[in-house]
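SAMPLE LOG
Freezer: B-3
Tube label: C17
Construct: single chain, 386 aa
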Amino acid sequence: MAITLASAENALKTVYLGVVADQLNSKTNPLYNKIAQTSQNVTGREIRKAAPIGINGGFGAGTEEGNLPAAYSNKYAQFVLTLKNLYGQIEISDKAVKASANNAGAMVNLLNAELEGLLKASKFNLGRMLYGDGTGKLCKVTASDSLDGFFLVDDTRNLIEGMVVDFSDTTGVIRKKLRIEYIDRNVNYVYTDSKVAWSASGGYLTVQDSYQNEITGLGAVFSETGTLYGLAKSANKWLIPASASGASFTETAMQAIIDKLEDEKGSVIDMIVCPAGVRRAYQKLMLTYKSNIDIMDLQGGYKAISYNGIPVVSDRFAPKGTMYFLDTSEFALHQLCDWKWLESENGRIITQVPGKAMFTATLVKYADLICSKPAGQGKLSNIAEA
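STRUCTURE (predicted):
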């Protein structure tokens, strides 16, 4: 049986879409798995959510014949976000399509290879964006040498080979669509495919065309300045999460911030997230006191060590020296719809790249992340990693 683009399209719609969506929604990382996904509060291109501040004020005690307490309804703030546009593309050459036209297995292998690559890239970037501030900045550039095609950066945790990035400084975008070929993580050198003569520093790298277009992650939630969901933090102190120094890293310091969040905000901390170095510091702390380290099974097949029944999850994208204490029930990914293939006016999802013998299909999701109670989250900073 001859394999055509139409049959490949049908497979992408009926077979692969469900598998891809499930993989992205349940296999990205433990934190992403814990965050609810909902279409509530989505209005047009925006998310508008009423977030409660404190408690109802209509309670009081009085005499048998006295006046009843005055009614004071719940106090709310309006959170507003624009839905972010998340895209992932696969690309197939016309030659590859024709070469597999009479071989169903070859076409299946071709689609599988493309979708596996798409899944890997999408999971990496979704996991990364959870810890970002929405600007899309991956790292700071401290020096560069265009003739050797490298950047010297302050941090490589958000970078990976194959990623396509833009370089910007205070004047705007300097170079677009530079593909990362190699990362020397020992010295923080990032080598790209560009050898054009230019030199600049003091800027930053972002994923191609993504500056100011990424989801609103923990970086924005835990920032003590700026705005969050359209509200200035300077005028709304209740938006600022709890924080403490972890320079003296002990179980007591961990419990103190959990107690503070539970007592003052009514939070139920159900996940602790940190980089691997901080997790090792916690394990070292347990070994010092010869305490047993319990292992927990998490949704999606993940495992984590435990602190008093709370999973301590290691994530490569968590900031260095930081431990987040999260009530994940307060987070939700508000979306217009789940992952879908982008369709043309005639309903096609595989389209030709103009002027090229190539075909593409684009996976899309319109969504953003909101924490309904930012002050109910906490972090320890300045932890010495092991």
